[in-house]
């Protein structure tokens, strides 16, 4: 069983190229999920090189713990008796060096 079977993402097409990622408080009281609990509130960081990720839509029961640009990047969902975690696949953008 793959991530698509568990999470039910929609792929409207296109992709996003970004240099940044940010973590979100997704739990009651503005708290972080236990996976991202050690990150600072509103932390935003940069990748060394840009990445390209496919645009996706996630169902309401899926929480985006981190975003890459405007797209969900690290996602979590209750599944069965446990939880499932999915990261977006991404492609590094090669920058030519002269």
Brief digest:
The protein has 98 residues and is mostly beta strands. It has one helix and six strands, in the order H-E-E-E-E-E-E.
How would you explain this protein's 3D organization?
The protein is mainly β and 98 residues long. It has one domain (3-92). The protein contains 1 helix and 6 strands, in the order H-E-E-E-E-E-E. It has one helix at residues 3-7; strands at 15-23, 44-54, 63-68, 71-79, 82-87, 91-92. It has a 6-stranded antiparallel sheet with strand order 5-4-3-1-2-6. A hairpin with a 2-residue loop joins strand 4 (71-79) and strand 5. The N and C termini lie far apart (45 Å).
Shape, principal axes of CA atoms: flat
- Count up the helices: 1
C-alpha-based Rg, rounded: 14 Å
| Total of domains | 1
- Strand % is 35-45%
Q: Assembly state here?
A: single chain
SSE series: HEEEEEE
Ends apart, CA distance between termini: 45 Å
């Amino acid at each position: 069983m793959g991530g698509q079977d568990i999470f039910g993402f929609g792929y409207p097409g296109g992709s996003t190229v970004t240099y940044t990622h940010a973590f979100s408080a997704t739990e009651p009281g503005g708290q972080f999920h236990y996976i991202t609990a050690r990150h600072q509130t509103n932390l935003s960081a940069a990748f060394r090189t840009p990445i390209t990720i496919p645009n996706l839509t996630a169902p309401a029961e899926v929480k985006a713990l981190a975003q890459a640009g405007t797209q969900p990047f690290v996602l979590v969902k209750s599944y069965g008796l446990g939880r499932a975690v999915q990261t977006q696949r991404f492609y590094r953008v090669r920058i030519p060096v002269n």
